[in-house]
C-alpha cells in the first residue's frame, strides 16, 4: 500500500488534503509523504474541526461550509492552481 501511495503522489501535480483530528491515518501518511517528497500541497479544514497539534501554524485554508468551499476555493487559491494545475 505504501508503495502505491508514494507512486501516486509522485505522479500527481499537487495534493489537496482535508485535515482534521478525525481524518484517516491514510490522509496523514499521504500528507507526510507529500511533504517529505517536497510535493506541492493544499491543506483545507472545515471551521468546525480542529487539526492535530503537528499541523497548527501551517498554512491551512479554513472553510465555514461546503457551499463556501465550492464557491471560493479556486478564487482563493488561484496562484497555487495556476502554478501547479496548468
What descriptors fit this protein?
globular; 86 residues; 3 strands; alpha/beta; Rossmann fold; 15% strand; three-stranded parallel β-sheet; 47% helix
Helix/strand order: HEHEEHH
CATH names the topology as Rossmann fold
Write out the strand line-up for the largest beta sheet, numbering strands in chain order. Answer: 1-2-3
| Gyration radius, rounded | 13 Å
The secondary structure category is alpha/beta
CATH top-level class: Alpha Beta
Count all strands and give the number: 3
Count of alpha and pi helical runs: 4
Contiguous runs where pLDDT drops below 50 for at least 5 residues: none
Strand percentage lies at 15-25%
Question: Could you say what the CATH architecture is?
Answer: 3-Layer(aba) Sandwich
Task: Quote the average pLDDT.
Answer: 92
Number of domains: 1
Distance between the termini: 29 Å
Task: Give the overall silhouette.
Answer: globular
Q: Sheet bearing the most strands, described?
A: 3 strands, parallel
> Helicity range of the residues?
40-55%
